[in-house]
Design a protein that fits this description.
CATH architecture: 3-Layer(aba) Sandwich
CATH superfamily: NADH Oxidase
Distance between the termini: 45 Å
Number of strands: 11
Structural class: alpha+beta
Bound molecules: flavin mononucleotide
Largest sheet: 7 strands, antiparallel
Strand content: 15-25%
Order of helices and strands: EEHHEEEEEHEHEHEHE
Number of helices: 6
CATH class: Alpha Beta
Shape: globular
Helix content: 25-40%
Strand order of the largest sheet: 2-7-6-5-8-11-10
Length: about 220
C-alpha cells in the first residue's frame, strides 16, 4: 500500500447527501464521573453480553467519543474539525450509524449532537443486525456501524485508503475505552458492514469500515 501524500491543491467534492426523518436532539451529559484512565485501561475487556443501552448511556458514549468540539475552514477551503478522537488532516471521514434493538437506524450528527433517523430504504437495520448476530449474538445491544466517506480524506491526500481505515480504528478505540469507562460492554466485529450499504448507496460514496456491538452490562 502506498504512503499517503498531501495534495498540492485540495480537491473539493460534494458531500454525501444524508436524508433524515425525525431528528432527536441529545443533551450534554451531566454529572458523569469517570474512574482514572489507568483503572479504565486495566479493566477494559471485550465483553459479549449486551443489555439495552439507556438513552443517557447512548448520549454519553457519543458525546465523549464523537462530538464535534471545534469546526473551521482551513487554508485549503476544507472543513476541518476537532473531536475527542484524532483524524488524519482533521477531516473526520468516519460517520457513525446506530442500529437500535428496534431495528431503526440513526446517524449521529456530531456538530449538533443529535441523531437523524435514516430510512429503511437507505439501510436495513434488521438485516445487518442479523448478520452481526452470526459472529456475536447482540441480544438487546445496539449495533454501531462505522461508515467512511473516502472522498473527504481523498480531498487532501493522494493514496488516502490507509488513512481512512486507520481513522476507523481510532474511533473504535475511543468507543472501546469510553464504553469501559461508562461500565458498558463492547465487542468489535470483523465485518465491515459494507455489503449492506452498497445495496442502497447507488453512488458508492460510502464504505462500511467496521461494526461493534455495545450494550449495558447485564447484572
Ligand atoms: C477490528 C476488530 C475485530 C474484531 N472482531 C471480532 C469478532 O468478529 N468476534 C469477536 O468475538 N471478537 C472480535 N474482536 C474482539 C477481539 O477478539 C478481542 O479484542 C481480543 O480477543 C482481545 O481481547 P480483549 O479486547 O478483551 O483484550 C475484534 C476486535 C477488533 C479490534
Amino acid at each position: 500500500m502506498f504512503d499517503p501524500i498531501p495534495r498540492d491543491f485540495a480537491v473539493r467534492t460534494e458531500r454525501f447527501n444524508w436524508q433524515f426523518g425525525e431528528k432527536l436532539t441529545l443533551k450534554k451529559p451531566a454529572n458523569i464521573t469517570f474512574d482514572s484512565i489507568d483503572q479504565i485501561i486495566d479493566r477494559r475487556r471485550t465483553r459479549r453480553e449486551f443489555g439495552k443501552l439507556s438513552e443517557s448511556q447512548k448520549n454519553t458514549l457519543l458525546w465523549y467519543t464523537s462530538r464535534t468540539i471545534i469546526s473551521e475552514i482551513d487554508s485549503n477551503g476544507l472543513e476541518v474539525q476537532h473531536r475527542p478522537a484524532p483524524s488524519a488532516g482533521a477531516l473526520h471521514p468516519i460517520h457513525i450509524l446506530i442500529h437500535t434493538p428496534e431495528n431503526q437506524c440513526y446517524k449521529y450528527l456530531s456538530e449538533e449532537h443529535s441523531l437523524g433517523l435514516c430510512s429503511s430504504d437507505f439501510i436495513n437495520s434488521k438485516a445487518i443486525r442479523h448478520k452481526a448476530d452470526e459472529l456475536v449474538i447482540g441480544e438487546l445491544g445496539t449495533l454501531i456501524q462505522l461508515v467512511a466517506e473516502p472522498a473527504i480524506t481523498m480531498s487532501k491526500y493522494k493514496h488516502a485508503k490507509s488513512l481512512i481505515y486507520r481513522d476507523a480504528g481510532v474511533v473504535l478505540g475511543y468507543l472501546s475505552i469510553v464504553s469501559e469507562g461508562l461500565g458498558l460492554n463492547l465487542c468489535a466485529l470483523g465485518l465491515t458492514g459494507d455489503s449492506f450499504l452498497r445495496k442502497s448507496n447507488s453512488h458508492s460514496q460510502l464504505t462500511g469500515v467496521g461494526l461493534a456491538w455495545v450494550g449495558s452490562r447485564p447484572s
